[in-house]
């Protein structure tokens, strides 16, 4: 038996099974240790490219090796003198998204010597079910071969595919590759083709969602940076955090701070309720007594009205002169704060994803319960504007986004304290 790279060649006539196994196992431990180190290098290279995929590697077991040897002999795919078995060692990189597959291939090309690339699935043969995978045949680095006393050249196949295509390949391996016969009639073949098409479409859809999320995230980051740049220019203060921004947007309109920082249609519709000027000592704010006007709001991705300000805006609109509408288009069940605001005298009717708010002359203090981060802030705003005492339970939600809020509002003159539960 001669070992050359990932090919093991056996002279004919074929030795006994026990003799083949004894010879084969002489090499297995060395191959496994070499693959372990190659796996470490591959993982490090992919990490440097910003990828964290699942990586699998294996040395073909003797049972698989022997079964393949017999299949080759039965099929007559060998010379008169010998029979060869390839893919003794192999690695697999399994990625969540199509873009990761492409990036992993580029990364492997840049970090290893790639001798051959095979794009399986391009032919969509029935036997392979058409699963898609990129197979890169790399040369194992010379220093690695030397340390494990392996003769060059020595190649290793690295397969790269998505999670869905990897699952499809596993099924193909069991039903076709390992099977002695494959009785797939035309009907079964059509079903398999349809399943494969669904998996391929799913990969494409997941990638489209990923691209959309990335675009939204980029726009959100721009919006946040622009907002805080404007705050810094206006106040001369360092950025206090995103939680403070969400509070100021509505708290300002409720308690007299001008909404003109980040002018939106919603803020314009509320009308000016304050005047503010910059001075050497900072920001001066004064009420002007103007009423709150009703508005119609629909939450939407940027540049629309943010869903994270929906609860705070609702608290404000409970005191508007007239009827307002808020339509929640991002999340379901985002009106958990409505029953609590109603305890304080707010008039709010909810139908599906739409809330109709009829403004009242004033709110009254009441014991209420916070259901989430945004709801807790809306109840604090309503409580500060209400007549009497409001006690808000489960305020631990608040601490996830607003640090020492009671201290900051207290410094502005609010009568607010945290009670021991």
Brief summary:
The chain is of the alpha+beta class. It is built from twelve helices and 16 strands.
Describe it:
- The chain is 44% helix and 20% strand.
- It is α+β, with helices and mostly antiparallel strands.
- The chain has a 5-stranded mixed β-sheet with strand order 3-5-8-7-6.
- Helix 9 packs parallel to helix 11.
- The longest helix is centred in the middle third of the chain and has 50 residues, at 186-235.
- It starts with a strand and ends in a 10-residue tail after the last helix.
Q: Major β-sheet, in short?
A: 5 strands, mixed
Are there runs of 5+ residues with pLDDT below 50, and where?
Answer: 1-5, 239-270, 272-276
Q: Report Rg.
A: 33 Å
Molecular shape: elongated
Q: Gap between N and C termini, in Å?
A: 77 Å
What is the string of SSEs from the N terminus onward? Answer: EEHEHEEHEEHEHHHHEEEHEHEEEHEH
| Count of individual helical segments | 12
What is the helix content?
40-55%
Report strand %.
Answer: 15-25%
Q: Taking all residues together, what is the mean pLDDT?
A: 80
- The neighbouring-strand order within the major sheet is 3-5-8-7-6
Structural class: alpha+beta
Give the beta-strand count: 16
List keywords for this structure.
single chain; 421 residues; alpha+beta; five-stranded mixed beta sheet; four-stranded mixed beta sheet; elongated
Write the layout of secondary structure elements.
Blueprint: E1 2-4, E2 7-11, H1 17-48, E3 54-59, H2 62-75, E4 82-85, E5 89-95, H3 98-111, E6 113-120, E7 133-139, H4 142-147, E8 155-162, H5 163-177, H6 186-235, H7 242-255, H8 265-270, E9 274-279, E10 282-287, E11 296-298, H9 310-317, E12 323-327, H10 338-343, E13 347-351, E14 354-358, E15 367-369, H11 373-385, E16 391-393, H12 405-411
Parallel strand pairs: 5-8, 11-12, 15-16
Antiparallel strand pairs: 1-2, 2-4, 3-5, 6-7, 7-8, 9-10, 12-14, 13-14
